[in-house]
Design a protein that fits this description.
With 155 residues, the protein is an alpha+beta fold. Helices cover 37% and strands 37% of the residues. It has helices spanning 14-23, 26-36, 40-49, 92-107, 122-131; strands at 2-4, 7-11, 53-59, 62-71, 77-84, 112-118, 134-141, 146-154.
Length: 155
């Protein structure tokens, strides 16, 4: 595990997944529904199951997010993901600092990280840009056919 300011990245447990599912930001819930048509806990379980590595981002007050990294069809390209709770709004500095550490760890495994971000989710797009992701134009995808933006981060 890694400690960053007052946040820590720790191994994910079923309790973390349940806590994040129950307290997920509404925008993350909407993104899960638009992309996969699944409830938050199902998306979290699926994401962790298909990841090489995953972490819970925790502070004393609870779990801020669960994040992970899985392979893509392209060599040296990993699919990085993060789903957050409402607790992020009261711990923004801890969240962004721990995000940086987590995504730097992911870049140690893959030269390029990618994922799709709901084009309606302005906070997530700003956060991804802050981390250094290049954000593409929105294209319709997912089960709902809504616009998602390709986010790409290179080492």
């Amino acid at each position: 595990s890694w400690v960053v300011s007052e946040a820590a990245l720790v191994s994910v447990t079923p309790a973390h997944l349940e806590e994040v599912a129950e307290n997920m930001r509404p925008e993350d819930v909407a993104e899960c529904a638009a992309m996969q048509g699944m409830e938050p806990l199902a998306v979290l379980l699926h994401s962790v199951r298909h990841s090489e590595v995953s972490y819970a981002m925790v502070v004393q007050a609870g779990t801020l997010a669960v994040l992970g990294l899985g392979p893509s069809r392209e060599p040296r390209v990993g699919v990085a993901w993060l789903l957050s709770t409402r607790l992020v709004d009261s711990h923004p500095k801890s969240f962004v600092r721990a995000s940086r550490v987590g995504f730097d760890l992911f870049l140690g495994r893959y030269a390029t990280l990618v994922n799709l971000v709901d084009a309606r989710y302005a906070k997530a797009l700003r956060w991804a840009q802050w981390l250094g992701f290049e954000i593409g134009s929105g294209v319709p995808c997912g089960v709902a056919g809504l616009e998602f933006c390709l986010a790409v981060l290179r080492r």
